[in-house]
Amino acid sequence: MGFVDELRALSEQVKRRLANVKSEEATKQALILPFFQVLGYDIYDPSEVQPEYVADFAKKKSNGTFEKVDYAVLRAGVPVMLVECKVAGSEPQDADGQLARYFNATTTVKVGVVTNGTRYRRFGSL
After folding, report:
1. Which residue, among 33, 49, 46, 126, has the nearest Cα to 82 in the 3D structure?
2. Other C-beta atoms lying within 10 Å of the C-beta of residue 52
3. What backbone torsions phi and psi does residue 121 show, to the nearest 5 degrees?
4. Which of 4, 53, 98, 117 has a Cα-to-Cα distance from 86 of 20 to 30 A?
5. Domains of the chain (ranges, CATH numbers)
6. pLDDT reported for residue 101
């Protein structure tokens, strides 16, 4: 199956799954990670796709935990893309500021994405 066919199949899966996706974690598992796979990423290899990525930008929240971006795509151990995920049905642009903080503080990152699993907003630098 070619790339276009895989995208079509994923689109049909998303339509079937969407009614059952009620949380951010379900959005990641049912909608976002399958898209990464279609793009050719090995979602099970943390040297390629790192979940809950903590980088230099991370600051401690009031509860003592570090702020994390949902996924970092790595190349040779260096983050090149950050992905912030929100629950399906939410407005991805509501997280633009959050993604911008991460994106601007991590100089190796050339692409930032915020998504709700059905809409993807991409930001980039040259």
Report:
1. 49
2. 10
3. -110, 125
4. 4
5. 3-124 (3.90.1570.30)
6. 74
If you average pLDDT over residues 4-12, what whole number do you get? 95
Give the residue with greater pLDDT, 90 vs 96: 90
In eight-state DSSP terms, residue 87 is -
Cα(71)–Cα(81) distance, rounded to whole angstroms? 8
Residue 58 CA from chain centroid, whole number: 17
* Contact between 54 and 60 (Cβ < 8 Å): no
User: Is it the case that residue 83 has pLDDT exceeding 70?
Assistant: yes
CB 118 within 8 Å of CB 86 = no
In whole angstroms, give the CA distance from residue 59 to residue 71.
17
Separation CA 92–CA 117 (nearest Å): 9
Pick from 41, 32, 42, 126: nearest CA to 70: 32
- Average pLDDT (38-54) is 94
